[in-house]
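name: query_chain
kind: protein
chains: 1
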Amino acid sequence: MASYHFSVKSKNKGYALGHYLYISRLMQYEGIRKTSNETVEHIEPGRCMPSFVKDPIEFWQAADTYERANAKAYIEYEIALPNEFTPDQRKMLVETFFDKHIVPQQYPHSYAIHNVKSRISGEDQPHCHLMFSLKANDGIERTAEQYFKRYNPKEPSKGGAKKIQLQDGHADYSTFLIYIRKQWENHLNDACPTVTYTLDGQDITIKNQVSADSYEKYNEIHSTLYLPEPKLGVGQQNATAEYLAQIQKIREHNQQERELEERQKQLDQQHEYFYSCANEPYSSLEVMYYVNHLLKKAKNKDELNEDLATIIKTQTPILGQENWNINKINQNLHHAQDHPAPCIEFRVHSKPEQPIHPQHNQQPRPIQSEQNKPKPDNYDFGDPGF
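structure:
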């Protein structure tokens, strides 16, 4: 199943070359993670590189050497990829995203796609490491040293390459982070396949959607009870039996919550829609608001009678399934038909009176971590601190 993880990191000079060697699995990192059966699906050594670069190692080494003190030598996007996709599909997924958000700025960049087995479930965890420099390649011939000098806006050929900040065009850096994370959410959802669940003996096929929101925000918007997973971290320091068992219980709880959410979505999809004269679809709950609107704005009794008759015919079976008081609704509608200027309100509930209960023997107890507040993602791929 596709899941969401998109982190933005940065490091100062002195770390760029080491990180490039790490994601490319070169030199001292050539045999890393053999015990976890890692697969390196693709390595892109360098794109949008300046003319002095013959090997991307030269560029990242120059960034460590010539960038000014305390400057960011590189930015990294760490992105989880769908394990339902083939390696070629994952490569196309990230490259089409980079073509929109990295290549237009001509950021020199390298990236790699790794696929490592989860230490908990054994499932594939494909992910991408993208590293890029903010020193945009403008096509001007420069030496490695000159490339990282300060930009000269009056005579660009005499200075270094211009540094295009990520927040350019946005209110601030925080606004950019929200923007780029949302862009990946949209990009992934557009490409995601459907996923099929079997609930109560029925196959339910839905769009496999992800969200950039934190668990807390998603729960608030969708009235769900997902729990965030604590991160395993780099290495084995958290891989105790108790800690792994805790994460497994949280995943079981979230899976049950996901099944409930999908079951509710499927029930919503089974409902017919009433279409207004403007050809706008309304769910059964929204129809009641629309009825209120009709009653307040009605001027022609014959037209009102026709609209209300259509609503009664199409919505009564659905409202009955949702435990609405049909008799009361009909009384109000007939009362409205007999009065030229009705002024009544239907009470509209946000949920059915009888909520859907889990189809499990026992409701899982929410599990709270004794660790510090966990982050809203859990990926046991990591790096050695670059």
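note: Residues 201 and 359 are 11 Å apart (CA to CA).
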